[in-house]
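Saturday, quiet lab. Running sequence design on the structure tokens for the scaffold JK sent over.
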């Protein structure tokens, strides 16, 4: 009798191959490590070959595991494609999504990929603005979803990941050593701007604003070029930047949260699909590329 492979076991096998850890895989799917180990044991029994080996503390795929990896991906992709083919045309909508522009690349290349691929009748309308403007759009109902960064402790709906605000300067130049600090920041009434200026006023450090913009990407460019310093969530720090600490004379800043919020009273299957895709993409740690 032909042996049939279990898709759940293959999915677990892929997760372990990607994370390199039974423990991390168990945490990500909210199961016990023993349950994950049992799934792999049963998969190895079906294959008839060992799939993982340990090199010291590191978990490695065996040659048989490497071979299975290719088949497992193809099988799970085909399973997904089969299911989607029966539901793709049922979801049609124009969804308005707002976010800070530093997250734009991750959003397009990662978070929204399943939507682009599986739901061609869904149009995602992206709007890049600072957090405070995005919150106001959500309140007015002019956006359906928004990705925002808030100081920890503020009212929020769903936290995707946590970080902390940090001072950043150029990795090659030293604008932070100037007697009067040159700053690049968001426009007036932005909570990030208020946090930055309040911190400098607390230590009585003089500053001048050389760039005021609604684009966080623009402030990052000014920092990398060595023209200014600013504050960013730590997981938004790019190559070409250096984090300034208390040893450099800059006060410690509060923690912050990346949060997904949605407009009240607006319900649509496409909103749920995009929200789920965004949440899944941020389960892994992201770094913003230059």
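Result came back. Writing it out in full:
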């Amino acid at each position: 009798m032909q042996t049939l492979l279990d898709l759940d076991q293959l999915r677990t096998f892929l997760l372990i191959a990607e994370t390199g850890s039974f423990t991390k895989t168990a945490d990500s799917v909210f199961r016990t490590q023993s349950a994950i180990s049992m799934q792999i044991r049963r998969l190895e029994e079906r294959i008839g070959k060992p799939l993982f080996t340990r090199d010291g503390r590191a978990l490695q795929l065996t040659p048989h595991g490497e071979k299975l990896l290719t088949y497992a991906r193809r099988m799970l992709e085909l399973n997904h494609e089969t299911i989607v083919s029966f539901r793709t045309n049922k979801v049609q909508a124009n969804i308005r999504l707002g976010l800070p522009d530093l997250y734009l690349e991750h959003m397009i290349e990662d978070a929204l990929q399943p939507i682009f691929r599986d739901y061609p009748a869904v149009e995602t309308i992206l709007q890049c603005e600072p957090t405070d403007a995005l919150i106001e759009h959500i309140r007015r109902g002019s956006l359906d979803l928004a990705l925002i960064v808030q100081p920890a402790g503020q009212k929020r709906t769903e936290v995707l990941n946590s970080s902390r605000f940090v001072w950043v300067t150029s990795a090659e130049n030293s604008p932070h050593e100037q007697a009067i600090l040159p700053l690049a920041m968001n426009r007036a009434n932005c909570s990030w701007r208020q946090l930055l200026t309040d911190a400098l006023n607390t230590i009585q450090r003089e500053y001048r604003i050389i760039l005021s913009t609604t684009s966080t990407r623009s402030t990052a460019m000014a920092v990398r070029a060595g023209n200014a310093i600013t504050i960013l969530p730590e997981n938004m720090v790019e190559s070409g930047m250096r984090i300034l600490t208390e040893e450099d004379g800059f006060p410690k800043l509060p923690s912050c949260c990346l949060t997904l919020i949605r407009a009240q009273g607006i319900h649509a299957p496409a909103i749920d699909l995009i929200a789920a895709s965004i949440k899944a993409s941020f389960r892994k740690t992201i770094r913003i590329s230059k």
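Notes for JK: Confidence is low (pLDDT under 50) at residues 285-290. The chain has ten helices and eleven strands. Ask whether to fix the surface positions before the next round.
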